[in-house]
Every structure is written in C-alpha cells, then in structure tokens.
Specification:
With 261 residues, the protein is α/β, with parallel strands linked by helices. The chain is built from twelve helices and five strands. It has two domains: 63 residues, no CATH class; 160 residues, Rossmann fold. It is elongated and about 75 Å long. 25% of the residues are buried.
C-alpha cells in the first residue's frame, strides 16, 4: 500500500466512523503479511478490535453519567458481613436479570449497615454489562422533579429518567416529606412501575412509609408499586462507620502510647 492510498483509506474509515479500523489497519496489515492471515482473518481482527473499543467507550460514558461513586465497587464490599440470603443474591443481581424482568430491589437497615455501598457496587457491575444506571440520593431526585413541575416540564424530565434501565434511589427515608415532594415521588414510582427498575435503600421499614407519603392510601399504593415484582433485603449488624471510627481511635491510641515510650 502506498502512502497516498494508506492516507486515503484512513480518511475513508474515519468517515465511516471506524476510528479503530483506521488506527489499527497498518499494524494489523503488517501482522497479516507476516503471519499469512487470510483477508477474512484480517477483517475479523479489525472488526473485533473496533467493537471492543466501542464497548469500552460506551461503558466509560455510562459510568460517567451514572453518578456512582468511583471508589465503591464490588471489591470494596465485605461480602462476609452480609446476611447469607443477601450474599447469595449479589452475583445474580450483578448479572442484571432483574433489570431485564423490570424487577425492583429494596434494601432496609439501620444507617451505616452498607446499603448504599452494596447498591453502588451492584450499579458498577450493571454498568460494566452495558445497562444505563443512575444513582441519586432520594432528596436530590425529588428536588429535580419539583423544579421540573414548577417549570411545567415534569413529563419531559420523567422521560429523561426513563432512559435509565435502573435508578438507584438512596435514602428514601430522608425526604423532607411535604405534600409536593410526596406527589412527585409517587409520580416517579408510578411511571416506572412494570417498565423500568428501581433500587431503593431505606432506614424506614414499610410500616413507617406513612412518614414519607403521609396519606394512608398513597402510602399503600406506593408500597404496592415497588413491592410487586421485587427483591427485598434486610441488612443487619453494626455500622461500618462506627466500626471504622473505633478502629481509627484504637490506632490513634496505640500511636500515642508508642510516642510516650
């Protein structure tokens, strides 16, 4: 291949939106000549590399738009601390089958028991499999919907959220709980019912959700929507944060003792 034809080919491949083809064409061409690849083998290698690079870029975009904390991955979850039922379910949730079936996942437990960490880690695994995930504190989502309702764009905002296969709604029990907030949250859950998945963490069990939705009928309807087709976890045990603080205090105490000696 002459320099002129090589340059022309590169331009054509970029025009066809095959940048990895263009970047690897010369290198793979040299390998093909040395190793005696057939034309089919040569094209297969280029196509495989193009697809792998496209997937890598897609996952990067999904992770960037997800709102997931970068440091809360499955590797940081102490699986041995989880209840047996939960531990057995984690690999299945990471595969994303519940998303395909538009099921919900709910985790209840006291503050610090690892609900947010676990769901964030699962979120990362889902992203790596190509699912569109959004992590958001519940109060922030509610404020986002309130602004949209004020601006008469609530329907448009709900459609934007509908693009996500999974919305992880963190700390639903901490919403300020006035009537307007209750209404937009109920609307959001209703819109996703049997169409898209939600993952919800809460320190309030269902019997206490009347604190969120106020009205008994609305509370019952909201619970019905999230519980139907759902997987429910209860995380027990001591607080991660409390244990970490105690560990820091112990380490500080040891350092002070060494300094005295």
């Amino acid at each position: 291949m002459t320099a002129e034809s090589g340059e022309s080919l590169s331009v054509m491949l970029k025009t066809l939106k095959l940048p990895t083809f263009a970047a690897c064409c010369e290198e793979f061409g040299e390998k093909a000549a040395k190793q005696g690849w057939s034309y089919t083998d040569f094209l297969h290698q280029l196509a495989e590399t193009e697809l792998a690079e496209r997937r890598r870029r897609k996952i990067g975009r999904l992770r960037k738009s997800s709102g997931l904390s970068h440091d809360k991955t499955l590797a940081t979850v102490e699986l041995e601390r989880l209840p047996t039922k939960v531990r057995r379910q984690v690999p299945l949730l990471c595969e994303g089958g519940f998303v395909d079936k538009t099921e919900n996942v709910l985790a209840f437990g006291n503050p610090g028991t690892g609900k947010t960490l676990l769901f964030t880690a699962i979120g990362h695994e889902l992203v790596s499999r190509g699912y569109k995930v959004l992590f958001t504190p519940a109060f922030r989502l509610v404020q986002r919907l309130l602004v949209a309702r004020r601006d008469l764009t609530l329907e448009k905002e709900l459609k934007r959220l509908d693009r996500f296969n999974v919305v992880i709604l963190d700390d639903i029990g901490y919403i300020q709980q006035d009537a307007a907030e209750m209404e937009v949250l109920f609307t959001f859950l209703g819109e996703r019912y049997e169409r898209r998945s939600v993952m919800i963490t809460s320190n309030l069990v269902f019997s206490q959700w009347d604190r969120i939705f106020k009205d008994p009928m609305t509370t019952a309807a909201a619970i019905d929507r999230v519980v139907h087709h759902s997987i429910i976890f209860e995380l027990t045990g001591s607080s991660y944060r409390t244990e970490a603080a105690k560990k820091r205090n112990r380490n500080t105490g040891r350092e002070k003792d060494r300094e005295k000696k």
